[in-house]
Amino acid sequence: MENIDLINSFSEFKDNKLIDRVTLMAILEDVFRNALKKRFGQDDNFDIIINPDKGDLEIWRNRIVVADGEVEDDNQEISLTEARKIEPDFEVGEDVSEEVKLIDLGRRAILALRQNLISKIHEHDNTNIYKQFKDLEGEIYTAEVHHIRHRAAILLDDEGNELVMPKDRQIPSDFFRKGDNVRGVIESVELKGNKPTIIMSRTAPEFLEKLFEQEIPEVFDGLITIKKVVRVPGEKAKVAVDSYDDRIDPVGACVGMKGSRIHGIVRELGNENIDVINYTNNIQLLITRALSPAKVMSIKMDEENKRAQVTLKPEEVSKAIGRGGHNIRLAGQLTGYEIDVYRDGEEEDVELREFSDEIESWIIDELSRIGLDTAKSVLEKDVDDLVKITDLEEETIIEVIRILKEEFE
User: Fold this and answer.
1) Where would I find the K Homology domain in this sequence (predicted)?
2) Does 173 lie in the same domain as 54?
3) Phi/psi of residue 252, nearest 5 degrees
4) How confident is the model at residue 176 (pLDDT cuts 50, 70, 90)?
């Protein structure tokens, strides 16, 4: 195989979108020098001339002419007789440059050289892809569904790069078909081996934040600042917004007339209920706003332990807790405070955690998951209702109720 034939066989790399001419030449030279080292032991006396645009390659070996019988290193030296076969007027001590044909390296070396080049090209591509997407972490990206696996959707972008959206990064109501265009945020990029793994997410709070930037001009322009986003993907979200311009109503600007501005975001997120809240440094006021749509009567703060006791009228309690306990849980995440709800006029309630000696912690966690954090909140529920909305057995619930009732007798 002639040199030019081998270079022509690499033509698919010349137009590679991620490799410029200088980089390609450097990779080619590195690969050929490795092949020369394996064949001749060293490569410092070789000149490699590459023009990948034309497919040209020349390799020249430089040696010093020595007297016949005095060659000690046939890679660095050449006898006078052999030198004069190249040019008849060579003399001892002169430099001889002789072209090396790839066929002289042997067929195995040529096959290994090609494989090495392909590997180097892919390694370079993967490094560039990693850098490109690492810079896009936290940004919205659109890709097309290529195929659906049991635990993930595999997507391809316009350049053929593969992205993975695991099932737990998809909104529960998401249903994708091959060919669908999907938006999400680039959540993380990792190099596993030499291949980058790009994870896309639609459940991350950053996705909702970036949708606000895309859909609401004042957020994009920086006139409105998003202070914090908390979500139960596909169910409910709370977004705290602020504006440094008193003339701008940040909540009104984000929601729009009759919800016109936020409607597209809600639809994108599978009808996720989004509460937009006016941010304030006054933590009591922020907690009051975060518990919307419930109306708070009073708040007792424990700043040292980051807890707030909130008193509401009885008819407002269910609103504060919300379906599945989402509202009170998100309010706590948004404000950074553990929020305990009390009905107006009721006697002192007791935290479920106070019963940890008698009730196992996993049972308390299960009741807390649906917003039942106190003894009275559990006692107000029927046994049948608790069986339906928790993963607890009826016998377990009856025993819990017995323990709690003893506290108030």
Assistant:
1) 233-295, 304-409
2) no
3) -60, -40
4) very high
